[in-house]
Structures are given as C-alpha cells and as structure tokens.
C-alpha cells in the first residue's frame, strides 16, 4: 500500500514538473548552447596552444628547482612532420637548454629571464630527442615547458 502511494506521488510530481513550461524552455536552451558553443576556448593568446590532434611529448607544466631538468622522448614520423619544444623562463636569471636530436651534436640555447623560446624540430625518421635544461649560476630555475608533435 505504501509503495502504491509513493509511486503515485512520484508520478504526479514528475507530471507536474514536465508540464511546467520553464523546464522545456531551459532544456531547449541548454541543447542549443551545446550545439553552438565551442568546447575549446583560448583565455590567453600568449599561452602555448595545443590542438587536439597534437601528440604531447612533454605535457605543459611548471618546473621549479635548483636541479637541472632532463627529459627524453622519441619522435615518430607517423605522428607528424614537425615538433615544437616551448620553454618560458620565469626565473631570475638565464637558463640554458641543451637539445640533442639523434646522434647530432647538442645545441645550447640560452633563454634569458622573462623570455620564451620555441624550438622547431623536423621529423625525418624515428628519432630520440634529449632535453637538458640547466642554470650556469646555480640559481633556482623556474620555467614552463611543453613539447608536442604535429
């Protein structure tokens, strides 16, 4: 008996709610917003933009330490012809990025405080890349870093 009363009350409440004209309009507005609003927004055009088809080699993050940063990854030609390594130096002095591509000699790239550098690496074949970032003065490094292949 109590089950029938609860079932009846629930059914009556759902009919009242569905008959309310505001609920139908709100639902229609939400559906329309979902169809017309892009799920991707750019809040700061100075930030590195990564499109959904990019392969994340180094996910964007902040590194803050007295120790050097070291990361290796492999470029695969099936993932795209180009890769970018982006470093934004927010520390108090210059940091240096030593990048080794395959068996080539490493290149040293100075990145002054408050600046950013994007290094483009062409993908010819399956290649290992080593990134080593250090400070020559021993100061605490604070930087943002990311790498992608597209």
Automatic annotation (TrEMBL):
Keywords: Signal
Secretion signal span: 1-24
Domain of life per record: Bacteria
Name of the molecule in the record: Uncharacterized protein
